[in-house]
Amino acid sequence: MTQTLNIVGGGLAGSEAAWQAARAGAKVVLHEMRPATGTFAHQTGKLAEMVCSNSFRSDDDEQNAVGLLHWEMRQAGGLIMSMADAHRLPAGGALAVDREAFSAAVTEKLIHHPNITLQTTELKNLPGDGSWIIATGPLTSAPLGEALRAETGAEALAFFDAIAPIVYADSIDMEKAWFQSRYDKGETPQERTAYLNCPMDRDQYEAFIDALLAADKTEFHAGETAGYFNGCLPIEVMAERGRETLRHGPMKPVGLTNPHQPQVKPHAVVQLRRDNALGTLFNIVGFQTKMKYGAQAAVFKMIPGLENARFARLGGIHRNTFLNAPTLLDDRLRLKSRPNLRFAGQITGVEGYVESAAMGLLAGRLAVAEMQGRTLPPIPHVTATGALLHHITGGADAKSFQPMNVNFGLFPPVEGLRGGRRGRRDRYKAYTDRAKAAWLEWLAA
């Protein structure tokens, strides 16, 4: 195979696509504009840098759709999952990683692969020929974004994604906070104590909400609109939807007992999750924000246990772009008007680290098969990977298309199973059993 596969973007999707293609024998040129050209959200020039969080979410492959996606990627020899497993941190039932070690490991694997060449170049125009995968993610550069709009004849959709703050562990008051995973979830003592909890009584919660609503916020530039993805809503936007919204969301007090005051039920609880293997950094779970930096520090120090918090990183907000994939892409992730261009990752309209990497895995495999003159069988819709692909390339309504995490609502129903909450456990197990069998069959083909 003499043809070269060019991949633009060294995030999770581009990194996974490069790995899959190189393992299949293709020569790959991976184009990543960092560190020569940076973004306001990235902090390093490493590949697969995790910007917003260090969590890949649930690792339960029997009762959770994202855990099933983890399983499928592992079965396919995914680089992202193998490096996540190698650098995982205690996080209850979730898969969280030491993000710096994870990114460094992915970078080392790719730059030392004999079939991969890394070029720190910025693609500003759409290439005319050759085989390409565009995996530039939600922070696609302005010149390439303009080239895409010119090619598609349609405006790329946009939403705002917010980043949660990170706190130094030694600045947290452990006379007020305590370690516990909700409902003591996890198989080991480390897993069952993976989260730091900061309790609030009713008065503290009400004062916190007042301060949150009154805080100075980042203003939008002309022409930008605040079309947030519901899975990454800034905390102050959630508060604007109702004073109790946070108590039923990231600050819910259920499944936790404060050992400092075991007889007192907290009115609300703020959770922090370990952000590195050393345990020196913790991110505030679900606290993405668009407050200005000064306001963030003042408001977050109202949280009991964080009065003297020092922040390794404050929250932020950035504009995410994605294609109207149901209109523009075919079921092989190719741009209908330019079939030599494939797309992968968040720019396709999937949301989440794992979902983005999964689309990179597919794009890499599909591209190599095409270069080798092979046609892979259709990806089964009953798998997590196939359900996502089907959603973004035809299952979703193009008029109202929005970024989507993997979830069982995207799967074809299993006939004869009980509906409702009471039948959910059996139903989810049936989904995952069916998906695993279909995915292994697809991989074997």
TrEMBL record:
Family as reported in the entry's similarity comment: Belongs to the MnmG family. TrmFO subfamily.
UniProt protein name: Methylenetetrahydrofolate--tRNA-(uracil-5-)-methyltransferase TrmFO
Protein function: Catalyzes the folate-dependent formation of 5-methyl-uridine at position 54 (M-5-U54) in all tRNAs.
Magnesium among keywords: no
Essential cofactor(s): FAD
Catalytic activity: uridine(54) in tRNA + (6R)-5,10-methylene-5,6,7,8-tetrahydrofolate + NADH + H(+) = 5-methyluridine(54) in tRNA + (6S)-5,6,7,8-tetrahydrofolate + NAD(+); uridine(54) in tRNA + (6R)-5,10-methylene-5,6,7,8-tetrahydrofolate + NADPH + H(+) = 5-methyluridine(54) in tRNA + (6S)-5,6,7,8-tetrahydrofolate + NADP(+)
Domain of life according to the entry: Bacteria
Documented EC number(s): 2.1.1.74
NCBIfam families with a match to the protein in the record: gid_trmFO (TIGR00137), PRK05335.1 (NF003739)
Stored SUPFAM superfamilies: FAD/NAD(P)-binding domain
Main location: cytoplasm
Gene Ontology molecular-function annotations: flavin adenine dinucleotide binding; tRNA (uracil(54)-C5)-methyltransferase activity, 5,10-methylenetetrahydrofolate-dependent
Example of a GO biological process term: tRNA wobble uridine modification
Keywords: Cytoplasm, FAD, Flavoprotein, Methyltransferase, NAD, NADP, Transferase, tRNA processing
Binding site for FAD: 9-14
Top-rank EC class of the record's enzyme: transferase
Subcellular location: Cytoplasm
Classification via Pfam families: GIDA (PF01134)
Annotated MnmG N-terminal domain residues: 5-374
Annotated GO CC locations: cytosol
Presence of keyword DNA repair: no
